[in-house]
Amino acid sequence: MDLAALLDRIAGDVAPDVGRGAVADYIPALARVEPRRFGMAVADVDGGLYGVGDWRHPFSVQSMSKVFTLALTLSRGDGVWARVGREPSGDPFNSLVQLEHEDGIPRNPFINAGALVVTDELARHGDAAEALLA
User: Fold this and answer.
1) Which of 93, 89, 85 is nearest to 118 (CA)?
2) pLDDT tens-place string over residues 67-97
3) What is this structure's pTM?
């Protein structure tokens, strides 16, 4: 598969929509982002790195880190599912309302409470920093 060509095609497909959304202004690092910036990158299992657009421009990762932390945790087993659910919450990502009504079990790993549980699970089973850098 030609990943560079695939990224170019996707970038071309979405180009008309770049800049159409609103930049979140409730987090200072996000409020400063130029809305027309767009980039994608893919790393393959052989060490190849492919990018298009502003992919080398630094950015604030924010909640995207939740996906990587969950993937790393799941690579060590599925025990995390005993501590966090897999259902949509229906509440804002930072709400504690549902958590209080469900015996402290977060609905999913992508709300803040769930992400904290996933991070704790990762930290409980070895050196989290070492695993992230491996």
Assistant:
1) 85
2) 999 999 999 899 999 999 999 988 888 888 8
3) 0.75
